[in-house]
Amino acid sequence: IITQVSNIVGLNTILIGKVLVWSVIRELGPLFAAKIIIARSASAIASELGSMKINKEITLLKIMGIDPLEYLIVPRIAGITISIVILTFYFQIISIVGGLILSSMFIDAPFLPHLKSIFSTLSIYEIGVSVLKSVVFGLTISTISCYHGFRVQSSIREIPIATERTRDLSLRSR
After folding, report:
1. pTM, 2 dp
2. Are 161 and 153 in contact (CB under 8 A)?
3. Rounded to a whole number, what is the distance in angstroms from the first to the last CA of the chain?
4. Which of 24, 75, 84, 100 is 20 to 30 A distant from 15 in Cα terms?
5. What is the pLDDT of residue 44?
């Protein structure tokens, strides 16, 4: 992003800082974190819950007096949501700092002025938008995964179908 903007408008540190905040903080951070979680965990949650339903483990939890929603669903929803927020933060930091380091090495863009322009452009609103998107993505992905895992009824052959639906719907929901 830095090299593209530099080629178009020159080494305008304020504009580059604004473009980086708009693109990486607002858009790409939450989106890439959601894609990573979808690829890694959404299908796994659906297949695990589907397997537990087929093996009657959920029924056994009910018999023991344990609410399956509180024991199985709430931790997964909270875990996925928190994971996406933290992964978004890591992605944003690494991509901005890495981009600044590489651009300072290859196109002689000054590192510290660019870093200062990013921090001057970055506001609570930008961070709030990023966190809000991450939370919405986390809630959506985990809810879809848990829903399709719990929809498995009687056959082990339903588990791959549930995992495919989970991945497809999670990708469409972004």
Report:
1. 0.82
2. no
3. 22
4. 84
5. 87
